[in-house]
């Protein structure tokens, strides 16, 4: 097997792997380590404090989490990585701005779309799709891409062996996620209240909008409810919270591109009660590894039925379809295909990067 020289550019905001919140950072960690174990020369560009089996280039001494979203910070991080493009056969970028730089360079660039396609970024994605190889993290996400934009679907993955497993159901419901309306914390509280079951909330509340939403909409609804709140506990504590739950609530209020919470929960054996939105139907096997619902009342009834589900099937689904090992293998296959395509096109004129208006969305095209 020929060794590839691969640069992986993580977002700069949190360490890789994350010590608390950081879904993208967890995915990047599995990918970088997995590729390194398979013998590739992997360089990871990430914030200081990161731990990896790849070669680490720390672009900041400490993760600049307090400046989350700063264009200046992200630009500095990206330039540090792309300045070394000649050292690599391929660059895999997980940032938002990075592909704009990569699109102007001759080195092949792969970019994973971790967020939704919106009216604001639609034209940019259409333009970038002509110059970089896009990866969608679900078939649903790919179906929302502009017409003519190709993307390969590679689901996120975790290492099931790193997750504690429990065969018998617990006695509480779990909500795990950011305190944001799109994640459905208010709906989770109402589900627990109507089901008459305790609720454990493992949450992130450190950005201004999250704090405001917590104080105005979420916290007042906790009165009279048997509830415990843990803010960004250590990873081991979060995994125990998954393991010991009766079910994890995922009342998502937006077209979720993937939803790591679902596979993290299933890896511990805990089924997921989720709203039918975004990627949910392709991640949760309805009636087997969870129950997909249309609203709060249906979810409250489903909470008690979760006890009937085989928790071993939850674990097996992750092992078969959403493992980090499978994620690494599919990325390796994609990289080789991209490099082979580049070799065939060697000497071809570079396409111009133009922000032409994107046509309406259609079902995703086949992978490159």
Order of helices and strands: EHEEHEHEHEHEEHEHEHEHEHEHHH
Low-confidence stretches: 347-368
Fraction of residues in H or I helices: 25-40%
Number of strands: 13
Q: What best-fitting shape do the alpha-carbon axes yield? A: globular
> Sheet with the most strands?
7 strands, parallel
What distance lies between the first and last C-alpha atoms, to the nearest angstrom? 22 Å
Question: What is the spatial order of strands in the main beta sheet?
Answer: 3-2-1-4-5-6-7
**Briefly, what CATH class of the largest domain?**
Alpha Beta
Would you tell me which CATH topology of the largest domain applies? Rossmann fold
Spatial extent as radius of gyration: 21 Å
Which percent range describes the beta-strand content? 15-25%
Mean of all residue-level pLDDT scores = 92
**How many structural domains can be distinguished in the coordinates?**
2
Tally the helices.
13
Which homologous superfamily in CATH is the superfamily of the largest domain?
Answer: Glycogen Phosphorylase B
CATH architecture field of the largest domain: 3-Layer(aba) Sandwich
Output the structural class. alpha/beta
């Amino acid at each position: 097997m020929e060794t590839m020289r691969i640069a992986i550019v993580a977002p700069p905001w949190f360490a890789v792997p994350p010590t608390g919140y950081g879904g993208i950072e967890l995915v990047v960690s599995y990918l970088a380590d997995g590729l390194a174990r398979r013998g590739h020369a992997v360089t990871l560009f990430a914030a200081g404090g990161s731990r990896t089996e790849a070669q680490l280039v720390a672009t900041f001494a400490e993760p600049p989490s307090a400046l989350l979203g700063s264009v200046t910070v992200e630009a500095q991080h990206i330039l540090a990585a792309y300045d070394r493009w000649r050292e690599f056969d391929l660059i895999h970028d997980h940032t938002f701005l990075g592909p704009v730089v990569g699109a102007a360079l001759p080195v092949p660039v792969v970019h994973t779309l971790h967020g939704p396609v919106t009216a604001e970024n639609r034209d940019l994605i259409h333009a970038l799709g002509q110059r970089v190889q896009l990866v969608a993290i679900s078939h649903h996400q790919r179906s929302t891409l502009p017409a003519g934009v190709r993307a390969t679907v590679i689901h996120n993955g975790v290492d099931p062996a790193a997750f504690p497993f429990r065969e018998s159901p617990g006695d509480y419901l779990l909500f795990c996620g950011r305190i944001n309306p799109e994640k459905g914390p208010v709906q989770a509280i109402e589900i627990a209240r109507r089901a008459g079951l305790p609720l454990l909330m493992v949450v992130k509340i450190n950005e201004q909008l999250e704090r405001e939403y917590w104080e105005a909409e979420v916290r007042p609804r906790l009165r009279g409810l048997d509830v415990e709140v843990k803010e960004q506990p250590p990873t081991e504590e979060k995994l125990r919270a998954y393991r010991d739950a009766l079910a994890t609530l995922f009342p998502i209020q937006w077209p979720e591109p993937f939803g790591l919470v679902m596979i993290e929960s299933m890896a511990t054996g805990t089924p997921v009660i989720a709203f039918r939105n975004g990627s949910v139907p392709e991640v949760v096997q309805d009636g087997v590894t969870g129950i997909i619902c249309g609203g709060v009342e249906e979810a409250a009834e489903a909470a008690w039925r979760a006890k009937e589900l085989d928790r071993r099937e939850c674990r097996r689904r992750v092992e078969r379809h959403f493992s980090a090992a499978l994620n690494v293998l599919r990325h390796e296959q994609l990289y080789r295909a991209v490099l082979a395509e580049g070799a065939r096109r060697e000497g071809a004129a570079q396409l111009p990067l133009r922000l032409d208006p994107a046509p309406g969305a259609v079902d995703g095209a086949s992978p490159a």
